[in-house]
Specification:
Blueprint (H helix, E strand, L loop, with lengths): L1 H13 L6 H43 L5 E5 L7 H9 L5 E16 L2 E10 L14 E4 L10 E5 H6 L14 E12 L2 E15 L4 H4 L2 E5 H7 L9 E6 L5 H11 L4 E5 L5 H39 L1 H9 L4 H32 L1 H12 L6 H4 L10 H18 L1 H8 L3 H5 L3
Parallel strand pairs: 3-8, 5-7
Antiparallel strand pairs: 1-9, 1-10, 2-3, 2-6, 2-9, 4-7, 5-8, 6-7
């Protein structure tokens, strides 16, 4: 009965009281507080989901062509060291595939245009086991990268930089480009830069600008031939794993079970600065958007204080009827909890609904206003990405509700300290 009495009054004070202008004003402030909580929770869920979507989109596009794990041997390893290691890795169900690989920074020269690039030496017949490069070819073929052919497949943006795109949008395959190694050769005539002519036999489009504008793929044997005296001229393994989030643990397993000294590096270290920046940006965005909910919490405090001042006579009567200070506190804490809880639930519902359909909503805005929210030349994606994560939604809901409860403490204590005699003196 005691709990029912507290719940009844808490719910009654939450609703609008018709016929009394002052009560209606308090109810209006109460509604504003709830709207503020709804907007804060909704904005947090939508913004964080969109940021998650962008991060996931970039990560997936990167990892579709970038190794999940790289493995390189120590100096003095036998020439075919990776054959035994590949067999050993087949015993780990987390590892889906491995293929020979090497990589080195270089310079490419075409018609006087010099561009810094990253040469990726791959085994074309095994590349499909570790990446989606074969599926990303938009012109030519990866099969043309045979050993000793000195053929190359360029990223689409790199090909455009070199002037290989024709007026009809096709690419001039068969053109010759010169790749210059970062080391030099000492000859009788003196020090000469090591360079080699490569035939362009294909174009790849990963959807990630940094990769499409810098990467050039050739056969791993041709890459070793070009970088033979380079510290980069070691053949390694590129490894694909089932769970990219467990790549660091799988990388450690490879190092422990290789049977020889190897250097391993997982994808989280390739773009460590970028992922750290995104994480920091995400945290700062959460803090900024939390201020919306905090403002709604201050509105809730103001509303409850006004309610306490307006209901002092009611509080005094309840105290004279035997209600304890704790019961009075519970009444107003329940009122604030109801407002905060309903605002949080509505905000979560609207936030998840908007975040789940943000791509269609943004597309509708683009069509209606004839604008490009995401210019394809910059972002290279067609729809606004979104990734709603249950754990983050629950965290946002709990934080919002917790702030609402904190906002009720001061007004509730103020109500509990009302003196019945003084409150009823002029009633």
């Amino acid at each position: 009965m005691k709990n029912s009495f507290e719940w009844l009054l808490g719910w009654r004070y939450t609703r609008a009281s018709r016929g009394v202008s002052h009560n209606r004003f308090i109810s209006f402030i109460s509604a504003l507080s709830m709207v503020g909580i709804v907007l804060g929770v909704m904005a947090l869920i939508v913004v964080i989901s969109v940021m998650n979507g962008f991060q996931k989109e970039v990560r997936e596009r990167n990892l579709s062509v970038v190794p999940h794990i790289q493995v390189f041997p120590s100096q003095g390893a036998p020439q075919n060291w990776y054959t035994a290691l590949t067999q050993q890795m087949k015993t780990n169900p987390e590892i889906l595939g491995a293929a020979p690989y090497m990589s080195s920074p270089s310079i490419i020269l075409q018609d006087g245009e010099m561009v810094s690039i990253q040469v990726e030496g791959i085994a074309p017949d095994q590349e499909a086991n570790v990446s989606q490069v074969p599926q990303k070819i938009i012109a030519g073929s990866l099969d043309a990268l045979t050993a000793q052919s000195f053929n190359v497949v360029l990223g689409v943006e790199l090909a455009r930089k070199l002037g290989l795109e024709l007026e009809d949008g096709q690419f001039a395959l068969g053109q010759t480009v010169t790749v210059i190694a970062p080391e030099v050769d000492e000859t009788i005539a003196g020090v000469m830069p090591r360079m080699r002519a490569f035939n362009v036999v294909g174009i790849v489009k990963s959807g990630q600008y940094q990769i499409d504008s810098n990467f050039a793929y050739t056969n791993v044997h041709d890459a070793v031939s070009l970088f033979r005296a380079s510290s980069q001229g070691r053949v390694g393994l590129r490894v694909k794993v089932a769970d990219i989030d467990r790549a660091p643990q799988t990388s450690d397993w490879i190092a422990r079970n290789a049977g020889m000294a190897v250097d391993t590096k997982d994808w989280t270290s390739f773009n460590k600065e970028w992922f750290s920046a995104v994480k920091t940006e995400k945290v700062m965005m959460i803090i900024i958007l939390l201020f919306i909910t905090m403002v709604a919490g201050f509105n809730l405090v103001s509303m409850l204080v006004m309610t306490v001042n307006e209901k002092q006579a009611d509080i005094a009567i309840l105290r004279t009827q035997g209600a304890s200070k704790r019961s009075i506190m519970r009444i107003f804490m329940l009122q604030g909890a109801l407002i905060g809880g309903m605002g949080t639930l509505i905000g979560v519902g609207l936030g998840v609904l908007l975040a789940s359909n943000i791509g269609s909503i943004v597309r509708g805005i683009e069509i209606a206003l004839n604008i490009d929210v995401l210019p394809k030349g910059i972002y290279l994606i067609e729809r606004m990405p979104s990734d709603v994560r249950v754990g983050e939604v629950l965290t946002i809901a709990l934080v919002s509700f917790g702030l609402s409860l904190l906002a009720t403490i001061y007004p509730s204590r103020k109500a509990a300290n009302v003196e019945p005699a003084r409150a009823l003196r002029y009633e």
